[in-house]
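Project channel, design review

CF: Before we commit to the Thiothrix subterranea constructs, I'd like one complete example in the thread so the newer folks can see what an input/output pair looks like. Taking Biopolymer transporter ExbD.
RD: sounds good, go ahead.
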Amino acid sequence: MKFRTRERSESKVDLTSLIDVVFMLLIFFMVTTTFDKNAELKIELPTASNVAAASPEDKLELLIDGQGRYYINGREVLNNQPETLFQAMSMTLEEMGNNTPPLVISADASVNYQAVVTAMDIAGRLGLTNFSMATSQSTRKPQE
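CF: and here is what came back for Biopolymer transporter ExbD:
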């Protein structure tokens, strides 16, 4: 008995759907990936130097501690309400006799940002336009 040999047909694998899936995954990962870019604008921040500026003797020093308490020239303000701070600063200005002395604001690093803004607002209402923020010298290297 003679058997016929069957012709073998080549089996083909259709890769079209596999390529579509790979492209869809590629697009998905490209869209959802976040890059480590902190800001869109490139700005240069001011730096502090080791040289201390000559400080006048008749300056108004405002210290804000970690709990948000205010101290004017070393004396604690009764409470941290803006009205009380306004009255205490105006009384201190009257005692100093100088209408617009320079104001130095020293705030603890952990203080609420609102306490500093309130102090700056009250200083502006009192007409103090010459003020500075006290900082400490950083030992970290600035990021480039």
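RD: helpful, thanks. The longest helix spans residues 16-32.
CF: The beta strands are 60-64, 70-72, 75-76, 103-107, 131-133.
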